[in-house]
Specification:
This protein has about 750 residues and is mostly helical. Helix 24 crosses helix 25 and helix 33 packs parallel to helix 35.
């Protein structure tokens, strides 16, 4: 295993950064990245074409007078015109004439069924027009130039610059870098402070410029904005021996303004960057993307060549992981033996792979695996605490190939891998059990008794998720159960008027993938129920129409993940939307039937290995009931693999089950599967001798005599030979042969 210094060096190499989804890191991680992308070109000036203005005017007029047919026709004509966003906005602004608010009309229309869809599409286009116009560099420069034209001009300009938000940052910095604009600098700095948080990340990146006097001004703005995201870089600059006395004083004042308790001043910058990474990863309230309704959000990068920042767009849902990766990497640059930062980088990188997918996913797998369990076990612990099933599976998949005997149980019974054996998600449990089975430990450990049962439960899984429905009203309970049972996403449903009744009906179920519970005392009963299957299942709470607003507010304010609320008379679309949202929040999608079969076959491979290994710490007998039941499975590949395991088990019940299956009419039309089962019977006979009664043996003798398929006859003959029959039974075959 690599030591911490060695692994950190590998992680910080250029090869690692090439593997990270975001190729250039934040400015802290790059000093010589080369030239930044060229500034965005100014948007084409908006054209208020008379025809388009008339369409927008008619749309708003007919919307207001409630002529939905004509309103819809004019709105659709506008959409069909396929205007550039800024031209679309210009048409509505001209048609509004300052007396009608297009946005409000479109919002009101979405409450009317006839105009809902067209108005939604129009509003999306209108919002795109607002964004495009507000972020137009030419327009931003014009507004910055107005900042010193007096109070009214300043106020008007600052309103439009606020609309541009973080996208105004490169233009502000451009002006600050221009000595010819020196008279504007005080107004620029004032405006940046007033715009505030949207400019924070670009300013933090710009603090990597060389000129310390310019840094002083920006540090003052950062202190005015007052968010803790700036503390790591401020602390790093304060610790730099090359930082001037003037800049240190500004940093001290800014840190005092941000951190009233003064704790950050005594914390190493590397640790502050680690905290920053964790806060981004955990999506703390002020550590989330600003533009949550847009598909992408910018990560700001400092470019030494232009002495300015530029935006790299990343998917909004993965923005927080990209930021966490960069902050963890910066922590390692400052402190290469920071194990917590390595684990944080690994967690954020794996999570980013899950969220983004595509070609970029997995490019850092070789680096992650090189670190071994010492860094991956904390990641698994984080994922378990977050109830993030997808990340748990990813972490286990990386731990397993490298764990060995030493890495298997680093924390004894508190090992995250042991805890995964008891996790509510069946895929998580299986991955943990496979890891322990493949490791083949020499001695028992707390939780080792769970390995074989978990492998066994995977055998019978067909991929259908199990749902428990609890509702005191039988009619509503049945309606919900019917949607889950017969809908597009089919569930195996257990239900009851109370949680205890529903759980009693589901007592033989190995895992529960969904809870649908009526609002009331049974919701609280989930928390106190002594059943590990409920601990991580997504929950949908149902309520009446009157209860729903308060219920949704309560659910949304709940810190727990994987909980959604829906009306108890919801149709399939609404109910399944809530179910999928709850599942997505804890990354626990339903298992596809094809994946369920893959899982079953993987489990059977390990059960076969355990059955063959006489020195195994695991008890294969624990799987025999599930294996016997699985001989009735409709999947031939499962039956064949199950028979192979039972043939290795020294158990008379296993032999009897194989014998019965070999004679079963269910296999009469599948010679290959039947041959596999009968050959497994022969293998069993070698291990335990003949445990069959005379009637079953006679049936196999008849099979040899009368079966048309030569392969089946040969298999039956092999089984009879392995059973070592008495001479009077064997002689019958000789005497009846021709």
């Amino acid at each position: 295993m690599l030591d911490r210094h060695t692994f950190s060096g590998v992680l910080l190499s250029s090869a690692v950064m090439a593997a990270v989804w975001l190729t250039p890191s934040m400015a802290l991680a790059q000093a010589d990245a080369g030239a930044a992308p060229a500034p965005a070109a100014a948007a084409t000036p908006a054209k208020a074409d008379a025809k388009n203005v008339q369409l927008a005017d008619d749309f708003m007029h007919y919307s207001l007078v409630n002529n939905t047919d004509l309103a819809k026709a004019n709105g659709q004509a506008l959409l069909d015109a396929n205007l550039a966003p800024q031209d679309f906005l210009a048409a509505f602004e001209a048609a509004g004439r300052g007396t009608r608010d297009p946005r409000q009309i479109l919002l009101n229309n979405q409450k009317r069924e006839a105009l809902k869809e067209v108005s939604k599409a129009l509003l999306e286009k209108l919002e795109e027009g607002y964004r495009t116009t507000a972020r137009d560099p030419q327009r931003i420069r014009a507004e910055i130039d107005r900042l010193d034209d007096g109070p009214r001009a300043y106020n008007n300009a600052i309103d439009r610059l606020r609309s541009a938000g973080q996208y105004s940052a490169p233009l502000f910095i451009e002006y600050l870098n221009d000595e010819k604009k020196k008279d504007l600098h005080p107004f620029v700095l004032r405006a940046m402070g007033e715009i505030g948080r949207p400019l924070l990340n670009p300013i933090i990146e710009q603090l990597h410029m060389a000129d310390q006097s310019d840094k002083v001004s920006l540090v003052n703005v950062v202190g005015q904005i007052g968010y803790p995201q700036a503390l790591p870089v401020l602390r790093m600059l304060a610790s730099d021996a090359n930082t001037s006395a003037e800049l240190k004083k500004a940093i001290e004042q800014a840190m005092t303004a941000i951190d009233r308790e003064g704790k950050a001043a005594s914390v190493p910058a590397a640790d502050l960057f680690l905290t920053l990474s964790r806060n981004y990863y955990e999506r703390k309230p002020s550590y989330q993307p600003l533009l949550t309704n847009e598909a992408t959000n910018p990560v700001w990068v400092y470019d030494k060549g232009t002495n300015n920042v530029f935006a790299q767009q990343v998917p909004t849902n993965a923005w927080h992981t990209v930021m966490a990766i960069a902050a963890a990497r910066q922590s390692l640059q400052l402190k290469s033996d920071n194990a917590g930062a390595v684990s944080m980088w690994v967690a954020a990188t794996l999570k980013n792979d899950i969220l983004v997918g595509g070609e970029g996913a997995g490019k850092s797998d070789h680096i992650i695996r090189a670190g071994g369990p010492i860094y991956l076990n904390p990641v698994l612990g984080m994922a378990l605490a977050d109830r993030d099933a997808a990340l748990i599976v990813k972490a286990i998949e990386h731990i397993e190939p490298t764990q060995g005997q030493i890495g298997l149980l680093p924390q004894g019974a508190n090992s995250p891998l042991v805890k995964s054996l008891f996790y509510t998600d069946r895929t998580v449990r299986l991955k943990a059990a496979l890891a322990f089975a493949r490791a083949n430990p020499m001695s028992k450990f707390e939780g080792s008794q769970r390995v074989v049962p978990v492998l066994a439960e995977a055998i019978g899984s067909t991929g259908l998720p199990v749902a428990v429905v609890v509702h005191p009203d039988q009619q509503k309970r049945n309606a919900i159960a019917e949607i889950l049972d017969k809908g597009a996403t089919k569930h195996i449903v257990y239900s009851g008027a109370t949680l205890s009744q529903a759980m009693e009906s589901a007592r033989r179920v190995a895992s529960i993938e969904l809870l649908v519970v009526a609002n009331g005392p049974e919701v609280g009963a989930i928390k106190t129920a002594n059943d590990f299957r409920l601990s991580g299942a997504p929950v949908v709470v149902t309520g009446t129409a009157g209860q729903l607003p308060a219920l949704k507010a309560e659910v949304n304010g709940n810190a727990a993940k994987g909980i959604e609320a829906v009306e108890d008379t919801a149709d399939e679309t609404a109910l399944m939307a809530a179910v999928n949202a709850a599942r997505a929040e804890i990354a626990a999608p339903a298992i596809d039937p094809a994946v369920a079969t893959q899982h079953a076959l993987a489990a059977l491979v390990e059960l076969n290995n355990i059955a063959r290994n006489q020195g195994s710490i695991y008890n294969i007998e624990d799987a025999v009931p599930s294996l016997v039941e699985a001989l009735k499975d409709k999947r031939p590949e499962i039956v064949t693999a199950v028979a192979g395991v039972l043939g290795q088990v020294k158990n008379s019940d296993a032999q009897k089950a194989l014998a019965a299956a070999g004679l079963s009419a269910d296999l009469a039309g599948d010679a290959n599967t039947r041959i596999s089962v009968i050959m497994a019977l022969a293998a069993s006979a070698k291990h335990v001798g003949n445990a069959l009664d005379a009637g079953v043996v006679n049936n196999y003798i008849k099979l040899v005599q009368n079966e048309a398929d030569a392969g089946v006859r040969t298999a039956a003959a092999t089984a009879i030979g392995a059973l070592n029959l008495p001479s009077n039974q064997a002689s019958g075959l000789i005497l009846q042969s021709k």
